Amino acid sequence: MDIQSVLLQTPIICRGMLVRDVFVECGGCHVQALPYGDETGRISGRVTIKHILLASCLPNYLVEMASVLGASLSCVENAEEKTKEILCKPVEPFVQALPMTITSDVPLIKALAIMEKHDTSYIFVVDQGIYQGVITIQGLAVKMSELDSCAAVYHELSRQSGNNIEHEGLIIPKWSGKS
C-alpha cells in the first residue's frame, strides 16, 4: 500500500462559498475537513465541520458543563433557525491555518505517524504546492480491510508445518495442497 492507494480526491473550498457547501462536500466525500484555497489547486488553509460547529453553535460554557447538562436546554430553542442562518454564512470566518501536509511520495506509515503526532485523523497531500487529496484514518482502515489475507497466511503456515493452526480459538485446517 502506498499514498496513492488511499488518497481521496476532494474539492477545494474557495472564497465566496458558504458553510452549506462545506457540509455538503464533506458529507459527500465522507471527510471532516476540506482544504481552503484557490481554483489552481494551491491551498492556504482548511475548513472543518468541527470548527464551524464549535464556533457557531456550541458556546464554551456548554462544553465546560457538558457532563451536568440536562435533557432540556432553553438556549437551543431556535435551533432550526440558527442552523439555517449558519448554513448561509460565508466560509471565510471559519478558515483555519493549514495543518501539516505531506507529499505523495511519503511512505504511508510516515503519514500515519504524522497524523498521530498531530492528533488528527486526516492529512492533506500536496505535491509542488498543488493539492492532490486527503488521507484519512477511515480510508486507510477500509483499504486495509480489503487486503484480508489472514486466511492465506494461516493456510501457508499450515502448509509449511503440515499441521492444523489454532488462533484465538479458531482452528485452521491442515493445508490440503488445494487453494
Summarize the structure.
With 179 residues, this protein is an alpha/beta fold. It has 8 helices and 9 strands.
Task: Explain what the structure shows.
By secondary structure, the chain is an alpha/beta fold. The chain has 2 domains: about 5-145, CBS-domain (Roll), CATH 3.10.580.10; about 150-179, no CATH class. Helix content is about 40%, strand content about 20%. It has helices at about 5, 20-30, 50-55, 60-65, 80-85, 110-115, 135-145, 150-160, and strands at about 15, 35, 45-50, 95, 100, 120-125, 130-135, 165, 170. The strands form 3 sheets. A 4-stranded mixed β-sheet has the order 1-2-3-4. Strands 5-6-7 form a 3-stranded mixed β-sheet. It starts with a helix and ends in a 7-residue tail after the last strand.
Q: Which ranges are low-confidence, i.e. pLDDT below 50, for 5 or more consecutive residues?
A: none
Span of the ends, CA to CA:
24 Å
CATH topology of the largest domain: CBS-domain
| Quantity of strands, as a count | 9
Main attributes of the structure:
179 residues, alpha/beta, 2 domains, 4-stranded mixed β-sheet, extended
Write the layout of secondary structure elements.
Layout: H1 3-6, E1 13-14, H2 19-29, E2 33-37, E3 43-48, H3 49-56, H4 60-64, H5 79-87, E4 96-97, E5 101-102, H6 108-117, E6 122-127, E7 130-136, H7 137-147, H8 150-161, E8 165-167, E9 170-172
Parallel strand pairs: 1-2, 5-6
Antiparallel strand pairs: 2-3, 3-4, 6-7, 8-9
